[in-house]
Amino acid sequence: MDLFSISDELGNIDGKIADEFRALKNGFQKLEKVKDPNRRSRQLEELTGKMRDCKRFIKEFDTEVKDVESKNSTDVNRMLNEKKQSMIKELNYFVTLKKQYANSLESKRVDMFDGPTGGEPEENLASTMSNQQLVGRGNTMMDETDQAIDRSKKVVNETMNVGAETSAALKAQTDQMNRVVNELDSIHFSIKKASALVKEIGRQVATDKCIMGVLFLIVLGVVAVVIVKIVNPNNKDIPDIPGLAPPVPGSNRKLLWFPSL
């Protein structure tokens, strides 16, 4: 039904509201492409102003409907009321969209039409809604809050589980590092002990070599003396060696000589 056939004022207001809704739709589409936070914030403020104007037009529409209510039939009044509820629903959609963009910009949470007049726009919009719609909206907000709390609890539980797993992993790694340090200490002690043992063996080998060298020199000296005494038994510079002394004149003893020597 054409609203101009009911009231010219209703038709004009409906046209203004339709224009505002189109502007809001185009504005949010453009806002999606804006990357600069400052530009987004300014454009979001402009869209908030348009939503405030749209709220005022809906309020005027509701006032005009009440003025002509007595002149219209029940079907027409029902149609006008449904039209008003449809406008409110569409406006609430843009309000929710605006809150999402505001949260994405990490700005503080604002009311539905937060402006210079404080909470008055929300109160005016609430006055245009029926009690059943207000209760339904309240229940919806409570459900959303409960869901947000459940998600927060889930995140907290997951964080605690991750923290416990991380703590256990760190403890296991710490124990492993302690075992590695103990093994390194044992290896270091073994290396020091082996080094000391090698030095001791080296000293013993050097001592044995010295002793063997001295003994070898002694044996060489004895052999040399024996050879010289055999070759020149009358040499008085070399003392007699038992068994190798020349025979005493008039003595019946015979010198034992071993050719093998």
From TrEMBL:
InterPro entries: NPSN/SNAP25-like_N_SNARE (IPR044766), T_SNARE_dom (IPR000727). SMART domains: t_SNARE. Keywords: Coiled coil, Membrane, Protein transport, Transmembrane, Transmembrane helix, Transport. Its main location: membrane. The keyword Nucleotide-binding does not apply. Coiled coil: none annotated. GO terms for molecular function: SNAP receptor activity; SNARE binding. GO terms for cellular component: endoplasmic reticulum membrane; ER to Golgi transport vesicle membrane; Golgi apparatus; late endosome membrane; SNARE complex. It is found in: Membrane. The keyword Repeat does not apply. One of its GO terms (biological process) is protein transport. The chain crosses the membrane at residues 211-231. It is a single-pass type IV membrane protein. Residues 139-201 form the T-SNARE coiled-coil homology domain. PANTHER family: NOVEL PLANT SNARE 11, VESICLE TRANSPORT V-SNARE PROTEIN VTI1-RELATED. Belongs to the novel plant SNARE family. This is Putative plant snare. It comes from Zostera marina.
